[in-house]
Amino acid sequence: MPGLIAYGAHVPYHRLARADVAATLGTPPGRGTRAVAGYDEDTTSMAVEAARAALTRDGLRSRVGQLFLATAAPAYLDKTNATAVHAALRLDEHVLAVDMAGSVRSGLGALVTAARSAVPTLAVLSDLRTGLPGGNDEIAGGDGAAAFVFGGHRNGAPVIAELLAHDTVSDEILERWRLPGARTSRVWEERFAEDIYVSLADKALSAALDQAGLDRAAIDHLVVSGLHARACTAVRRAAGARPEAVTPDLTATIGNAGTAQPGLLLADVLDRAAPGETIALVVLGDGAGVLLLRTTDALPAHRAARPVAAQIAAGSAPMPYATYLTWRGLLDREPPRRPDPEPPYAPPAHRRTAWKYGFVAARCEKCGTRQLPPDRVCASCRSVDAMTDEPMEQVRGTVATFTVDRLAHTPSPPMLVVVVDYDGGGRFRCQLTDATEADAVIGARVEMTFRRTVTAAGVHNYFWKARPVRPAENVEGGETAV
Amino acid sequence: MSSHGIRDRVAIVGMGCTPFGEHWTRSADDLLVDAVGDAVTSAGVTLDDIDAFWFGTQASGVSGLTLSRALRLPCKPVTRVENMCATGSEALRNACYAVASGAYDVAMAVGVEKLKDSGMSGLSGTAIPGAGDDSRGEITAPANFSLLAPAYAAKYGLSDEEMKDVITRIAWKNHVNGARNPRAQFRKEVPLERIRSAPIIAGMLGVFDCSGVSDGSAAAIVVRAEDAYKYTDKPVFVKALSFVAGPADGLLDPQYDFTTFPEVVASAQEAYRQAGITDPRAELALAEVHDCFTPTELVLMEDLGFAERGQAWKDVSSGAFDLDGSLPVNPDGGLKAFGHPIGASGLRMMFEAWLQLRGEAPPERTVKSVAEGRSLALTHNLGGGPGECVSFVSVVGSELTD
After folding, report:
1. Which B positions 146-175 lie with beta carbon below 8 A of chain A?
2. pLDDT tens digits, residue range B352-364?
3. How far is A421 from chain B (nearest CA, A)?
């Protein structure tokens, strides 16, 4: 039986209050908050975090046969971003990893392609939405990522939601667009596309329901996603589903994450849906797409480790708007009087891919000492070339000592630095992120997260940082090794 | 294998040291020409009398040409050495061994650094690809050494306020000493409260907890001990030279607790063995130690055997290491007030030992211990940071051991 076998979501820790935007710019007051990717996050790093959340089950990573990364805000052009995700997940080198990048609709594309694939496929949807200061895209936008593994028909993995049917309609429509290199998108007058989208959604939904032999009353969860807010509202109203089946979007708390929004909304529904329920996911944008899923008895035991609602609840107190603008490059701030950061060098970064992207340390075969980073000579017994790989991304640790570096070059000073002693041995000094100075204390519990540490000379430097273990998200990941 | 030491086999017979500070109008070449000139004058020789040179700089030049070009040396052996902030000491150590080996009669060690031309705050370091995967991330020197403070406070039960009081007093003491030193970068005493309330740089460290970023140069002339009195009535004999590069496992090993530098302990014990010292606090007349940041000096008091483990903070508070204390530490102001031009600092420390043991320090900061009969001085110089560092310890004395 084809269907969904795993899912996970990443909602960034930071929040921006719309009221603060209005207060700063003197615009009409807004309500609620939006999620903001950290200064050290981009669509690639968020994709890694979402995929990690999806792939906690033992053995799942080794089943994945291909990986699609969908984003409208790729970290690189020309260079594949999915390969960084592939490296961070330590997937087999024969796993196809490609981007579906550029349009918001690529999220739907990745989902449908994964659902149709003959091999278990990981679709990661990641987006980072930016608009001009005070504009609707900035205020209504959001950042985040979600990941889904479709498969199960070949290898017996438990299916948590069967794919009942899907359909897409495509329409060339000048409704939202952005020239390459432009920072923000442009939209046509909103009412123009509203009726068109209602019609397109109806076609796709009807086709999918017909395939499945269902009527609209059979829908238990209607999820409508798209950047055209008016059209989404209209489709929710016109879709003919039972009123209680219509799920709210999450824009009040985390905004609309564009490419990733259908993924985040679907993950949120899967977090709470009961077995045997029918989910209709409707995605608007340059046409419409529909996936019809029915949850199985396996769902309750295989939900994502970090529910979307818990991640929303664990979000930070709202950050200052000026900080948001700085992180997004919309406010050019005075740099510290320090040398410019160095970019990573390509050959050593490639030699050390397992460490740099996968956070794979070493364990000495002779004395059992764990060592981060991996080196040829054991720091304890000095045995040479007697190391085995020791994946560390799921291992938590405790802060041994710390500092707050107010002089260091960082997009968000001050830099928090912790020395982490890992459960089961090993120590590493790294940055602490998604945290305040109050979180940097001896004895604090931390977990690892994949981040973009800095962009220097046009090169993104990806590496792992520690972040505080937060009570609302305190769910132990299961997988420790692949 | 064993380390034999070269106690009393070589002597320093001439030294020079420029004022340290912001030398906007002078280059590294200017500074080392001055330090070298003062050193040869001090020894009553000319550059032609120097057989070989060891030249230390971290980032203000590469190769022996940096020295030979500036001095227009006529085809002499010049070796450039580098060991981070212990570079100056490393130059001296190599020059001493070269003379002790019999390879040369007269050797010179020169250190120089020009930091202020960079326009950067603090040490900017050099671009070293290292592992190149850039997984360590940048951490500035003050942040690196600030890791000591919370660890020390937690281990020995000090509150943050008590810990801040202790490191504040170290800065205050070194400023008091620097104020009495015409060559020091900072020549003003600074009230405790001003130090304590200064803007924070990293962790618990304010600007006054950090050594001075400065330009400067220092030089020493080394000869065989038996030749020393041909050059000066007051040679300073080398009793011990000890240098270690640690295994750099403190950032890997959860056993390391950030309240000590094992490398310093190892190099100090070796130096005391070479020099025949059993009670450094009682036997030394003074110590010049690597107070790059105030918590460093606190930890060094224990690592160098000047205080019991967990007790140095009390000795600091009671003034044991003040200019008039039982063991004056950094009577010249230290890195804190004298300044820290990387490649020159190790030789600057030796310059203070040279002045004090010869009774040539200005009266207002002359240590009493020499007049009271102590004749040994220690210099300690380290590079790196907690968990991974290099450490140098020397002991020198104004008298030959019988």
Report:
1. 146-148, 150-151, 154
2. 999 999 999 999 9
3. 6
Q: How far is A119 from chain B (nearest CA, A)?
A: 33
| A356 → closest Cβ in B133, B142, B154 | B133
* φ, ψ of residue A417 in degrees (nearest 5): -125, 130
Residue B200 makes CB contacts below 8 A (sequence gap 6+) with A404, A406, B206
E strand or H helix at B278: none
Look at B150 and A402 and tell me if their CB atoms are within 8 Å.
yes
The pTM (predicted TM-score) of the whole model is: 0.92
Angle at CA of residue B76, ends B71 and B82, nearest 5°: 75
**Parallel/antiparallel/unpaired status of strands B216-224 and B236-245:** unpaired
Among the listed residues A193, A76, A185, A78, the one whose alpha carbon sits nearest the alpha carbon of residue A140 = A185
Give residues 236 to 265 of B whose Cβ lies within 8 Å of A. Answer: 247, 249, 251-254, 256-258
Question: Do the strands B78-81 and B52-56 form a parallel or antiparallel pair, or are they unpaired?
Answer: parallel
Q: Residue A150 has which token pair?
A: 């479709």
Interface test with A, best of B115, B124, B128, B133 (most A CBs within 10 A): B133
The DSSP 8-state label assigned to residue B215 in this structure reads B
Answer yes or no: do B201 and A407 touch at CB < 8 A: yes
Strand locations in B45-169 (E): 52-56, 78-81, 106-113
What's the gap in Å between the CA of A399 and the closest CA on chain B? 10
Which candidate, A413, A279, A270, places its Cα nearest to that of A338? Answer: A413
**Is A109 in contact with A99 (CB distance < 8 Å)?**
no
Which of A347, A403, A426 is nearest residue B143 as measured by Cβ atoms?
A403
Chain-centroid distance, C-alpha A451: 12
Q: Which residues of chain A are within 8 Å of residue B136 when distances are taken between CB atoms?
A: 429
Does residue A159 carry a pLDDT above 50?
A: yes
Signed CA dihedral, B143, B149, B155, B159: sign only: negative
Partners of A463 in beta bridges? A451
- How far apart, in whole angstroms, are the C-alpha atoms of residue B205 and residue A312? 36
Residues of B138-164 as b/e, b for ≥16 C-beta within 10 angstroms?
bbbbbbbbbbbbbbbbbebebeeeebb
Q: What is the largest CA-CA distance in chain B?
A: 60
Does the model's ipTM exceed the 0.90 cut? no
Q: Is the pLDDT of residue A473 over 90?
A: no
Contact flag B125-A406 (C-beta cutoff 8 Å): no
Token reading at A5? 């076998």
What does the pLDDT look like over A189-236, one tens digit per residue?
A: 999 999 999 999 999 999 999 999 999 999 999 999 999 999 999 999
Contact A446, A469 (CB under 8 A): yes
Question: Above 60 in pLDDT, residue A480?
Answer: no
Is B135–A341 a contact, with Cβ atoms under 8 angstroms apart?
A: no
Distance, in Å, from the CA atom of A420 to the CA atom of A265, rounded to the nearest integer, reads 35
Q: Is A232 in a helix, a strand, or coil?
A: helix
Q: Tell me the chain B residues in contact with residue A437 when contact means C-beta distances shorter than 8 Å.
A: none
Chain B segment 293-312 residues within 8 A of A by beta carbon are none
Is B138 in contact with A341 (Cβ distance < 8 A)? Answer: yes
Terminal Cα distance for chain A, rounded:
25
Which alpha helices (DSSP H) does A276-401 contain, by range? 308-313, 321-327, 346-351, 353-356
Q: Cβ contact (<8 Å) for B121 and A343?
A: no
Q: How far apart are CA B191 and CA B181, in angstroms?
A: 18
Say whether B147 and A379 touch across the interface (CB within 8 A): no
B5 DSSP assignment: -
What are the φ/ψ torsions at residue A291 (nearest 5 degrees)? -115, 130
Range list of β-strands (E), B179-215: 200-202, 205-206
CB neighbours of B370 closer than 8 A, spacing ≥ 6?
Answer: B285, B286, B356, B357, B359, B398
> Nearest CB to A427: which of B127, B200, B254?
B254
